[in-house]
What does this fold into?
Amino acid sequence: MWPVPTPSGAVDSDRLQDTMQQWDSSPLAEAPRGLCAQMSSPAVPTCPEKLKHHKIIFVVGGPGSGKGTQCEKIVQKYGYTHLSTGDLLRAEVSSGSERGKKLQAIMEKGELVPLDTVLDMLRDAMVAKADVSKGFLIDGYPREVKQGEEFEKKIAPPTLLLYVDAGKETMVKRLLKRGETSGRVDDNEETIKKRLETYYKATEPVIAFYKSRGIVRQLNAEGSVEEVFQQVCSHLDSL
It folds into this structure.
């Protein structure tokens, strides 16, 4: 189920992104739209117009692949805006907005947040930064082909998909090491392997879909952070 609330009511971002799914019916189906819906005046650029000159990078990688670290380095060097659906959901709930209250109610029931709502939040966040950002990193998205297709319909097509590809053994080793200090109950070998199985099953069709369009840039994430980032730079510098 997506998302998964923790006992405190917060949303665990790793588990949230590991279990992203689409849900077509929800109490939020008729919820008011955000910034883009307010852009009804002809003098105000529509969302596609505001975003069409921006680079949009999908960043896909398994738990322990190091994609979060690479996103941080891209932000520092290239001035991109890093967006994570998990962060956006938590921020919306914390804001106390009407939409945030409805999201909280859904999460407390363990139900799925509808894809349209997630896309509305992504779009609003992108439009809010469009005038100052040099591009956007959409972290951990899409988790299925349908999500990517809907993103293009409601927002814009991606420029690239960065596939942060570390081997299964490497990701298990990194997550077990993290578990030594994180205190997270899901940082144990059995749970990690189940998460990776879910990740591979969901991701393989996505990578194949975007490879057919020629926009996947696969990174060998077995090396050091700097070695991987050199690969990232070679791809982004050529845009």
